[in-house]
Write a structure and sequence with these properties.
The complex is a heterodimer of chains A (about 290) and B (about 675). Chain A has about 290 residues and is of the alpha+beta class. Chain A contains eight helices and eleven strands. The longest helix of chain A has 28 residues. Chain A is globular, with a radius of gyration of 19 Å. In chain B, β16 and β17 form a beta hairpin. The model of chain B has no long low-confidence stretch (mean pLDDT about 90). Classes of the chains: A alpha+beta (about 290), B alpha+beta (about 675).
Chain lengths: ~290, ~675
């Protein structure tokens, strides 16, 4: 098997999609649980403007942390995210070509598209699609976005999300994520293990519950304030802060069942408001990206 | 006779939808019989293809005669009876002459012969409608978002006798070219007839026939398992799932680390079957081995990639499971009970600790203080706060049972915990012990009483809390009569459920009606196979106090209804019911009986009535019905000799009471008048 490193994978995917007309965006500089929450996905899939983008997104999921002890689970992992809007009819073929580009001889592997639909209650978003299995292992989520922020989408975007660690681990035949090589001879374990340990400890044991609840209130208030001022992009930033704070409280075991429903609704209300205001703001600007291509 | 086939090429369709989709496709196509005459319909499917194959299709519709209506007769002829311009116009338009006009009617009419349309023409029109209107459980849009379907549509092959029959679906135009296997032969394939299509696709690594894929997989699975010294552990649903996961029917064997065999078997099997869609392999003694089988959309795994990948994922899953298992085992179930107060059952119905307390109370009453049932009831929900059930929700109950077993609790207790969700589906086993049946009943009636009191009831196809299933499960348990038989009626069970919430009888009638529906449905289902009228007749005489008694009465009716003397029973009962409508008394004043016939009927009614009561007491319903049938000649004589509707009210009422007395002998068994008989069969 190849000695493919974590960064080889990123570089090859970026090059592949750049050659196919994607703009390579940079990761969002805020804590998010998935590449979907980056405004380059959540907001850009709204409305009629075309959009083809690819980017790496560090994805923080406090509850998934395992103090760096579990060879498969991470509190922060890296996704490579592609949005193709509108979804081209040959999107599956493009995807398979991207696997060839990272060095897979597909005839020697088993590739299957198995039903897996996606729904995010906090974003008021859902889509239909597959988990893509490479030799039985899920390496990619593929979703045709149907709704975001409670708004029915047209055109429809195809979202392709590669799990970078899993893919590297599999391609380099490593049985622990901490054994893969990042690049330049640096190992993923030595680079990231401290980070996994400290954040696991923080999210599960140390995060101050009262402070986090207070932050949630503050972030929510600020998001609403921005919405009132018709500043949807800052409002969306604060919404994402709310979402991450909720995840922190949840990992800390501080959210009861009833509260959970209520907090999810608070975040969703903000996300829905952002989606609507974003769409209006783009319309006011005359949907500038309609000129694309 | 013509042959038609079409292939709809899509993106991967969820495997679980395809059997139903093929059935609806067949049903929709069979509606064409009315237009086109009979022909044979075959469907097939792969993950990406829906295939329809029609054989012996009539080349064209039969010609048919048709009446064409013209102007009203009044407008067609003038006062002198001469044709008006309106009539001339009508005839001209239809290429007809006055000789073609039919007689009679308020409008003039002609008959003409309409030539049948060619099959191809009809198919061209109908196939797109049929395909576009197939209803899928979930639909999506793609691209510009104009159409809604299960997955994006890519291509259509449409062939009539090997020639292209152009159709258009969602704006995609058909042709005679499809494509081979996505990876193994991703090239255009040009086809003519269905046979040619199947053969050429096979060369392009696609087996069109799902049944053939299934057989090839089953055989490969058997061989691979035998190589590992075992057999595939198969359940009924596996092949219908596997056959739609691949276009090429490959199977690969993988291994997981033997240390994971210490994880409870139920967890291992569920992870493999449900999460990984894999088949466990068991050895000759039936023990799980650390080998398993997985599907492969490829004809081999030369480099061992699929073997490596599947083993890798399964090991990762089991590593998680082992962690959960070991974490859970650090605290006994009983210690988790208090934690249930933080787990909400339903916003209006409190938390799971409260539910546990109610279940325990009901189980105690129901079982007359059976210690195993009570202890199991107290512990049955504790696994809901275990790591394992949080991860593998489907194993609720089973996990609690396994942990209880490993903590050394008595068999009666752990088995009752393990089984207390059973039965979930109609063909599920019941809890294996009587104690388990008590806990299951207690849990389910608590759920039903609670949700009904909170105003949550199933509507249409929506039943998010599984209330229909819960009621059905109760009915299944109460119908059982082996050593686990619970001798209690729905009636009393509902009372126990309501009193656990401190509720009165306000919603009892609703619950009874809800249960009555489930009883009817279940007794009509194949396992019992009773007819609707038998069930209705017997339920009229009561069902809530005992369901096994209800079944005995239905069985007696079923056995009797085809006997010649059943007509006696039915006619007697109907006559009595008609003549005594609105009269309830069965008290007969012997002094007021005037003639010999009615005195004799009264004596017989007293005697036979007592016998019948005794037989009913012993649940000898068939004999009771036969005794009743024997009264028929006397009753016949009574109707011949005695006038009931006399003017003297005292005498009239007395005679009606006599008839009631006779009739009531069987109303405790059934309202036989509800049985529908086909009298011709008795001749």
């Amino acid at each position: 098997m190849s000695r493919l490193t974590f960064q080889d994978l990123i570089l090859r995917l970026q090059n592949f999609w750049a050659e196919r007309g994607c703009m390579i965006e940079t990761p969002l500089d805020l804590e998010v649980g998935a590449g979907t929450m980056h405004p380059a996905t959540f907001l850009r899939v709204l409305g009629p403007e075309p959009w083809n983008v690819g980017y790496v997104q560090p994805s923080r999921r406090p509850a998934d942390g395992r103090y760096g002890d579990n060879p498969f689970r991470l509190g922060k992992h890296y996704q490579f995210q592609i949005i193709l809007k509108p979804s081209p009819l040959d999107v599956q073929d493009l995807y398979l070509d991207s696997l060839r580009a990272i060095g897979l001889d597909l005839a020697k592997h088993d590739i299957r598209f198995e039903e897996d639909n996606w729904e995010s209650p906090t974003l008021g978003a859902w889509g239909m699609g597959w988990q893509i299995l490479l030799d039985g292992m899920e390496i990619t989520q593929f979703t045709y976005f149907q709704q975001a922020g409670g708004i029915d989408l047209a055109p429809i975007s195809a979202e392709i999300t590669y799990g970078l660690e899993r893919l590297t681990m599999f391609l380099s035949r490593k049985s622990s994520v901490f054994d893969i090589e990042w690049g330049g001879g640096f190992g993923y374990g030595p680079v990231r293990k401290q980070d996994e340990y400290e954040f696991s400890k923080y999210y599960f044991e140390v995060a101050d519950i009262d402070t986090q609840w207070t932050l949630l209130d503050i972030y929510e208030k600020e998001a609403k304030h921005c919405l009132e001022e018709q500043l949807v992009l800052p409002a969306y930033d604060w919404t994402l802060k709310c979402s991450h704070t909720f995840n922190t409280l949840d990992a800390r075991g501080a959210v009861s069942v009833t509260e959970r429903v209520a907090v999810i609704k608070r975040v969703r209300d903000l996300a829905v408001a952002c989606a609507h205001q974003y769409l209006e703001s783009r319309e006011k600007l005359g949907f500038p990206l309609m000129q694309h291509g | 006779m013509a042959e038609y086939f079409c292939e709809i090429l899509l993106e991967e369709i969820p495997a679980w939808m395809l059997d139903a989709a093929r059935a609806s496709l067949t049903a929709a196509v069979e509606k064409l019989f009315a237009e086109l005459g009979q022909f044979s319909v075959t469907t097939n499917a792969t993950p990406r293809r829906l295939v329809l194959f029609l054989e012996n299709v009539p080349g064209r519709q039969a010609d048919r005669d048709e009446e064409v209506k013209g102007p009203p007769r009044k407008a067609a002829y003038d006062a002198d009876g001469n044709p008006t311009p309106a009539l001339h116009g009508f005839l001209k338009k239809n290429n007809a002459t006055a000789a073609d006009l039919l007689d009679g009617g308020d409008y003039v009419r002609i008959r003409r012969t309409v030539a049948g349309r060619a099959a191809g023409e009809i198919l061209q029109q109908r196939i797109p409608q049929i395909v576009e209107s197939l209803r899928w459980p979930k639909m999506m849009r793609w691209g510009a978002g104009a159409h809604s379907y299960i997955r994006p549509l890519h291509g259509i092959v449409s062939s009539l006798d090997g020639e292209h029959l152009p159709v258009e679906i969602f704006g995609v135009k058909s042709g005679l070219t499809t494509i081979g296997h996505r990876i193994l032969a991703n090239d255009p394939v040009r086809v003519t007839t269905y046979n040619d299509y199947v053969t050429k696709l096979e060369l392009a690594s696609v087996i069109v026939d799902a049944t053939r894929r299934r057989h090839v997989m089953a055989e490969r699975a058997r061989v691979l398992a035998a190589e590992a010294g075992g057999t595939p552990s198969v359940d009924a649903s596996i092949w219908s799932q596997w056959q739609y996961l691949t276009e090429y029917p490959g199977v690969v064997r993988g291994e997981f680390r033997a240390e994971y065999l210490t994880i409870p078997e139920e967890v291992l099997v569920m992870v493999m079957r449900v999460h990984q869609k894999q088949l466990p392999i068991r050895d000759a003694a039936g023990k799980l081995t650390n080998s398993f089988l997985a599907v492969l959309d490829n004809d081999g795994d030369e480099e061992g990639n699929a073997r490596y990948g599947n083993s890798f994922v399964t090991n990762a899953r089991f590593a998680d499971a082992k962690f959960f298992y070991e974490t859970d085992r650090k605290r006994p179930l009983a210690e988790r009970r208090e934690q249930l107060s933080h787990l909400e059952f339903h916003a209006k119905l409190g938390n799971y600790l409260e539910k546990t307390q109610r279940i325990t109370r009901i189980a105690r009453e129901l079982s007359g203080n059976d210690p195993a049932a009570v202890e199991a009831a107290e512990l049955c929900k504790c696994d809901l706060v275990s790591e394992m059930v949080k991860e593998f929700t489907e194993l609720q109950g089973q996990i609690g049972g396994i942990y209880a077993r490993e903590e050394g609790l008595p068999d009666g207790v752990w088995q009752a915990i393990y089984d207390h969700y059973l039965p979930i589906n109609v063909d599920d086993a019941l809890p294996r012990t009587l104690s388990g049946a008590y806990v299951s009943l207690a849990d389910k009636i608590d759920t039903l009483a609670g949700f009904f009191s909170a105003g949550v009831r199933p509507t249409g196809s929506r039943d998010p809390f599984g209330l229909r299933r819960a009621a059905q499960g109760i009915v299944q348990i109460l119908l059982n009569r082996d050593k686990r038989q619970v001798r209690v009626g729905v009636d009393r069970l509902i009372d126990l459920g309501l009193s656990a919430y401190g509720l009165g009888d306000a919603i009892k009638a609703d619950l009874l009606a809800f249960f009555a529906e489930r009883v009817r449905t279940l007794l009509e289902a194949s396992q019992y196979g009773f007819a609707y009228d038998e069930i209705a007749a017997a339920m009229e005489a009561g069902w809530a106090p005992s369901l096994t008694d209800l079944v005995d009465r239905i069985q007696a009716l079923k056995a009797m209804r085809d006997q010649a003397n059943f007509l006696n029973i039915l006619d007697s009962a109907k006559r009595i019911a008609n003549i005594t409508a609105g009269h309830d008394s069965t008290h007969v004043d012997a002094a007021k009986l005037e003639n010999e016939t009615e005195r004799r009927l009264n004596e017989l009614a007293t005697m036979v009535g007592a016998q019948i009561d005794e037989m009913i007491g012993e649940r000898e319903y068939r004999r009771a019905l036969e005794s009743f049938a024997a009264l028929a000649p006397e009753l016949e004589k009574f109707f011949d000799d005695v006038m009931v509707m006399v003017d003297d009210e005292g005498v009239r009422r007395n005679r009606m009471s006599l008839l009631r007395k006779v009739g009531n002998a069987v109303t405790k068994i059934a309202d036989v008048t509800k049985i529908v008989v086909d009298r011709s069969t008795f001749r």
